[in-house]
């Protein structure tokens, strides 16, 4: 999964448009994009969208944060639509995942869904306190599928006046980004890069996405359909990377009992093999 496109939960029109694109996943949003007065209506519309499933996209639902008191009602409303996963905003750590997982188990049973199949992606850096919980995601739940870092709400939590300049995040946000990446790697789940908010700057989007892929992120969250193709292309392996990966895998296949090998004048070992398989999307 490379691209996860947010769609307002109260807009079937935008959902239909997004469904015509090539995003790997659509995140139907019940949180920031829906005003309080329309939350209940958005739940019903979201259920209809889920049941319609117009394409092959994975469908996630971003519920409201646990501290709003609305999370369980959101889940109860949308789970009959069998979403592939839930996005939990403003997550503080593994305990939040366990709480949502407990609710999901009961709701899956009620809806006739196989227990444990609904995944959870956490937006894990939206408050100052959440940074200190990043190490608690490891082994918190087999449902956990990814950790996404977010800058917009973190800015408000910090009381910052500016997140970035010249297209480069300031140090608090780079810290949150990097720690989220490491937390995801430690928990063996997908690290997901934050949204790009300069909608018409596709060059900047491509540069930010390539930097994310370079550092180890495997997907990016998006807020506009025209970002999808740019992000998907940026996450695709280059011909040089694909050629290297194929040679590494072939070398180890020919020498299954070797821990290290010489390839093109360089020493390679099992971490190189894992990297090669990741490039080619192999388990």
TrEMBL record:
Keyword Glycoprotein: no
CC cofactor: Mg(2+)
Species of provenance: Bradyrhizobium symbiodeficiens
One Gene Ontology molecular-function label: lyase activity
Keywords: Lyase, Magnesium, Metal-binding
Protein name per the record: CoA ester lyase
Residue intervals of the HpcH/HpaI aldolase/citrate lyase domain: 2-225
InterPro entries per the UniProt record, alphabetical: Aldolase/citrate-lyase_domain, Citrate_lyase_beta/mcl1/mcl2, Pyrv/PenolPyrv_kinase-like_dom, Pyrv_kinase-like_dom_sf
Family per record: Belongs to the HpcH/HpaI aldolase family.
Source lineage: Bacteria, Pseudomonadati, Pseudomonadota, Alphaproteobacteria, Hyphomicrobiales
Keyword Metal-binding belongs to the record: yes
